[in-house]
Each structure stands twice: as structure tokens, then as C-alpha cells.
Known about the structure:
By secondary structure, the protein is an alpha+beta fold. It has 4 helices and 8 strands.
Amino acid sequence: MEKQKLxxxxxxxxxxxxxGHFPYMMQAVALAYQMVPAWxxxxxxxxxxxxxxxxxxxxxxxxxxxxxxDPAFFYVSLEGAIGYCPTGLEFQVSWLFFPMEPxxxxxxxxxxxxxxxxxxxxxxxxxxPPAPAPAPESQICFxxxxxxxxxxxxxxxxxxxxxxxxx
Length: 167
């Protein structure tokens, strides 16, 4: 059986998944979320939900796009901790978020995220508001010279032929 050849991007993604090294914070968060439902900020110790972390990762990635050849990466440990390594050397990882310990506080954060997700799904499933009704026929004017509709009822000249309109 012939081995399938991967594109360079697919090869890079496979390597990132195997090593836990990701060029973008959003990729690291996506993997860590599969292991951990909530984190604590490494410096402050404050709880952080998936939605908060996702928004922070999105802002960071937009503000700091990854450049080709940059050795920096985000690291996800086997336990789900997220770190950043600016030098490309794994032993110099600065930890950003640690998995939150099980308990009432984590359960409350997970429940809050679940409620927010359900509310967002309901809002997305809600029917679209109806489109505004077209202008009544009485407001639409036509040029007496060429018969084209006049877009602006207060216009003095026809936009199609330039003929002076009657008031």
C-alpha cells in the first residue's frame, strides 16, 4: 500500500499535534480544551473559562501574527497546561494557564459556559427578522421622456436621460 504524501501545512500540523508545539495560541487552546474544561491564570491565579481563554487567544493571534522562521511557540502539556516559549527551547517555557483543580468553583465555571453556549445556539437558531417592505408604488416616479424609474422622488432631472422632470 502506498503512503499518502502530505502537504507542507499538513506535515506542520501533524508535527505540532505530536509535539504539543503550536505557532498560534488559538491552536494550543483548541487542543487544551479537549483535555481541560477550565484553567487558572498562572500569575494571578484567577479562574479562566474556555470562552475567556478563546477570546484572549483570538486577540493575541490577531495582534501578534506568526512569522515564518520564528522559533517561538505555544506549548500544551499532557495535562492541558498552556505555556509560551519565545526562544524555541522547550525547557524555557513560561506557563500562562494551568488546569483548574476539580471542585465547586470549576463546576460553576463549566455550568456558566454551558449556559452561554446554549444561549448563543438559541440566538443563532432564531429566525431572521423580515426584510423591510419595498416602497409603495405611489412613491415611485417614472421619467415622462424615457420611462425609466426615478430613484429619488425629489429629483429635478432624470438620471437615465437627463430630461427635466415635472413637479
